[in-house]
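Annotated sample (chain length 590).
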Amino acid sequence: MALVEDGNEALRRLDSAPFDLVLADLGLAKIDALGLISEVRRRVPEQEVILVTQRSDVSAAVSALRAGASDYLLKPVEQTELIERVNRSLERAALRKERAQLLSENLEFVRDQALYQRCLAMLSTLDLERLQEICLADLCSVCDAQSGALWIANERGELDLRSYRGLIDRSALEATLIPRTSIFSERLAGQKAFEVPGQRLGKAFYLPLRAAGELVGLVLCADKLTGDFGEEDFAVVRAIGAFAATALQNARRYSAVERLGLRDRDTAAYNLAYFVDYAGKEFYKARRYGRSFSVLTVSLDRLASLRERRGAKAADELTRAVIGALGAAVRDSDVVAKAAEDEFYVLLPETDYLGALVVARRARGVFDSGEQVARLASGEVSMAVGAATFPRDGQDLDQLLHLCRRRRDEDRMSLARKLDLGRLDFWSAVDLLLGNRDSPPLPADDRAGPTRRGCLPSNLFSQLQVELALDIIRDPKARGLLYVGAAEVRSDLPAVEVLERVPADSAMRVYLLGRRADLESHSWAAPVFLEGDERILKHEFLLLYTEKAAYALVQRKAARGAPWGFHTSDSAVVSELVNKLQERYDLQPL
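Output written by the structure step:
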């Protein structure tokens, strides 16, 4: 209770502490009672106010009621009437407080119920791809974060970026975080929110998601809708994060069990239904996040004849060995499925076309050189592979598989298959492809890519160096390899001057191979010195292998006249030559 004689002092007291009732005399000094009532109601809209006025000034009382007074008393005031009016006002104030408390409790209950429903939705979702989206959306929502990202632990314990949303810059997010080598590895072992490097904790934070002591994921929350993140935000995200971690762990275990139940009993490959379902999820992710993924079709040609000649057991044993070889050639996240007795599909998440070609080449290498597969195939069964990539090759699975089959047919027609280049080393393959003037024509088919052998223009090697280097400048984001082989690695090689103009962020890798001359290093191309290798003195070559093009030129140097050479755009031949060159000189593969 407070008694003041000054209206301004009454307002200061009202600002400093709440009051159940304000009793105002119309004769207050420094501020009129009507002005006081209006100001009180402005500051505290539901404040109980009783006005005391002279019996002769009833119009002032009416004005006070219009200004917001709850009641009025006329002087002289009788004690019983005063007590009655005060009690009535206090009852109204108490009822108003009780209603506000109930409303607050109801709102808190509704909020808790909403959080409970979010957690229940997480725990009841076993579709891992869908759950990742739900978890990130809910974790951002409960703390009013406009942006966020979610990393999920893979089989190796690394954290893979699986979802992001809002204003966040995708290029600034690490695709994979390795906890043991991360700059915040110690923080990942805990359960508390911690700051993003270079930003205040109130602007953005990481929160580890742990379940049963295991690191399941990591969430990033940023760009709070209003103000900064505070302890209340960290607490609610940590509480919801515990449910998210458990839900993600359950979904991963369910996915693992589901995979076991969806494998072919004979080959351990996934069945076609699982492959189609998995592909549907990859389409969603790729469209949602602007990613790529690839599909391979792998065929075992003449498996049926082997089955007829050697029996079903031998054919099944070869199929199992091939599936095992494919499993060794792909990642844990890739899916190998059985489509037919002699055909398999491979789905490669987040893999561009060049990456798919590398996997296809690796699979052929395992088939050609694996002892068990080679013994079981006994030269009778061969492998043909076709690749296609979303979105560059098609917008649905049927389109991708159709193109895979077409490219698989081109692979069958390839010169690399007809000459069995897989069994040869680099220079042996070069000798076979070059032949000589007395060699029979190559068994080439232009449907697999044009191929020619014979006398070549003397300046073709120089011109193509310039053209291929200019192609890199025109499309620096294209990923791939360019190998330039010459007798000496010199600064006056036609490609060298052009390569100086290649942007620093180009995705192409260029290697210059030959004897050491006057070029020790290059700002963009990597010299590879082949000291003591006599073959490089007699040959020149260009090998271009990208997701958009494949080309190979190999020629014998001539003392005079036109050089004898071979060139092709048969991607299987180029792939074999690139692979063998990398093996011969221990070059870094893609």
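Annotation: The chain has four domains: 7-97, 128-260, 265-413, 425-585.
Annotation: The domain at 7-97 is CATH 3.40.50.2300 (Rossmann fold).
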